[in-house]
Amino acid sequence: MWLGSNIQGQCCRLDFTFSNDVTIPRRSTYLLAVDNYLSYVEIAELDTVASSDVINHLKLIFTKHGIPETVVSDNGSQYAAQEVVKLAEHQGFKHVIGSPQYPQSNGKAERAV
Fold it and tell me: Where does the record place the Integrase catalytic domain (predicted)?
C-alpha cells in the first residue's frame, strides 16, 4: 500500500531535480515521488529523463510502496507520453497533470525539490 494508503485520497506527486554539484563529473537527474499526506520523499537517480526511464523507476517505487490512487505531475513530456497513459491504465491509478502556469498545483513535489 502507498505510504498514506490508510488516508482517503492517497496521492503521489512527481517532479525532477538536478544535481549541480561541480565536484561530480556529470550532472545527475533525480525523480522525486512525494507522498501527499505524509510528505515522505522517495528519490530515484535517472540515467535519462526519457519516459521509459521514468516508468521503470515508477514501477520500482510502486513495487516498494504500492500503487497510489492518484499520481500528480507537471506537464513534462516524460509524464504526458503515451507510455505513462498506458501505465496508469494498466496499474489502475488516475494521472493528473498540473498546469505549467500554476506550479503550486504540484506544491508538495515542488517544495521537495
Answer: 3-113
